[in-house]
Amino acid sequence: MQSEPESQPAIELAPQPRSKSAINAELAAAPTLNPTRWPQPMTSTPTPPAPTSLFDALAPLRLPLDLRLTPEQFERVCAENREAVLELAADGRLITMTPASSETSGRNSRLVMRLLLWADRQGGWKVFESSAGFRLPDGSVRSPDASLLRLERWQALSPAERRSFAPLCPDLVVELASPSDEGPRGVSALRQKMAAYQTNGARLGWLLLPHERAVEVWGPAQQEARNQEANQEEPRRLEQAATLEGGAAFPGLCLNLEEIWAG
């Protein structure tokens, strides 16, 4: 029986050295790799939200003209449309406000600052700016440009009432009129708001007319006038006044109107 021949170990040939010029020639002839043509990994990058414009903020609010909301429904609408500036009329009608002009906003900031300084010095008062909404006794929800509330009235509210539209009318309400009489910030619309504040128990109201350098002072309505809107007290108009005082209800409160007009 013949034995199988023993296998010979493989002979490894050492690579032949190549010249530097040969290596450079191979590299130059090789195709260029383009990383942009490689398969890209699948990612789940979220699509950034589109920027919200004023039109986008108001688009969901194209509601029927005869629609009427309760204060509770209005609060839900506001929660779903935080970019919009809204108010609710006493009859349940939705009022779409327009943003204030830069000039009006500057005046309003100085007004709120002066009220804050007085309230801190006087003690016992709370100041609100234009974004605060109040649920008035007639069922409307209104937002004065600036307002003052006795601290004891604020502290009497429950935590839930404070987080919502406070169910009361402020003691002092201030509105700043725009030069145009059009829209919800015009003089005619603001006079209706001032009358509503008066009827719902405001102790004092100031309608500031910067373009006329004048003020309409709305005093508290008498009890019988609160029940009959037609008998409301007419406002007192101050022409070219340099200062505005709060009287006995707001002792020591005095606004320098010149700095308010200046913006």
What topology emerges from the helices and strands here?
Blueprint: H1 20-29, H2 54-58, H3 71-80, E1 86-88, E2 94-96, H4 102-122, E3 125-129, E4 134-135, E5 141-142, E6 146-150, H5 151-155, H6 159-163, E7 172-176, H7 187-199, E8 204-209, E9 214-218, H8 223-227, E10 236-239, E11 243-245, E12 254-256, H9 257-262
Parallel strand pairs: 7-8
Antiparallel strand pairs: 1-2, 3-6, 4-5, 6-7, 8-9, 9-10, 11-12
Brief summary:
The chain has 263 residues and is of the alpha+beta class. The protein is built from nine helices and twelve strands.
Q: How many helices? A: 9
Give the mean pLDDT: 81
Strand order of the largest sheet: 3-6-7-8-9-10
CATH class of the domain at 101-262: Alpha Beta
How would you describe the overall organization of this protein?
With 263 residues, the chain is an alpha+beta fold. The protein has a domain of 162 residues: tt1808, chain A (Alpha-Beta Complex), CATH 3.90.1570.10. 30% of the residues lie in helices and 17% in strands. Strands 3-6-7-8-9-10 form a 6-stranded mixed beta sheet, with helices on both faces. It starts with 19 loop residues before the first helix and ends with a helix. About 8% of the residues have low confidence.
Give the key terms.
263 residues; alpha+beta; tt1808, chain A; 30% helix
